[in-house]
């Protein structure tokens, strides 16, 4: 008997891939630290450096998040969330530092009717059609 498995909610990516350009001298320094065993690889060094900088500026980030009323971390918007906002006549102002995701069953029309603005520092996961519908509302 063959069973069909349907994923009810797609698993969100745990990270976002970025590309950086480094000078040869900086890259050489990183490779030396890896070769000497301080880091397991280049990625380990880069992640550690980024975390150290985020920690170094932690107070400023916390103050900014509090001042701007930003959701910190992961924020998922369901079709029901957007329908409720639309029906109440109170469009959403999405402000997220981290990952904002909009459910796959949200139509572009519903997104435009329910979302007044979108400001995401990090990543926005939504269908290409919903992203296109909200393009003029993104900051």
Automatic annotation (TrEMBL):
Under InterPro entries, the record lists:
Arc_rbn_hlx_hlx (IPR013321), RHH_8 (IPR041088), Ribbon_hlx_hlx (IPR010985)
What's a Pfam family in this record? RHH_8
PANTHER family per the record? Answer: BLL4998 PROTEIN
Q: What is this protein called?
A: CopG family transcriptional regulator
Q: Which organism is it from?
A: Rhodocista pekingensis
């Amino acid at each position: 008997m063959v069973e069909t498995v349907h994923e009810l909610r797609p698993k969100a990516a745990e990270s976002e891939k970025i590309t950086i350009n480094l000078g040869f001298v900086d890259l050489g320094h990183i490779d030396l630290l890896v070769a000497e065993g301080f880091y397991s690889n280049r990625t380990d060094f880069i992640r550690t450096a980024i975390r150290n900088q985020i920690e170094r500026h932690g107070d400023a980030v916390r103050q900014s998040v509090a001042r701007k009323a930003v959701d910190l971390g992961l924020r998922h918007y369901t079709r029901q969330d957007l329908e409720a906002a639309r029906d109440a006549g109170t469009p959403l102002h999405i402000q997220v530092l981290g990952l904002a995701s909009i459910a796959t069953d949200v139509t572009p029309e519903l997104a435009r009717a329910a979302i007044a603005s979108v400001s995401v520092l990090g990543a926005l996961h939504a269908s290409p059609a919903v992203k296109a519908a909200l393009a003029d509302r993104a900051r």
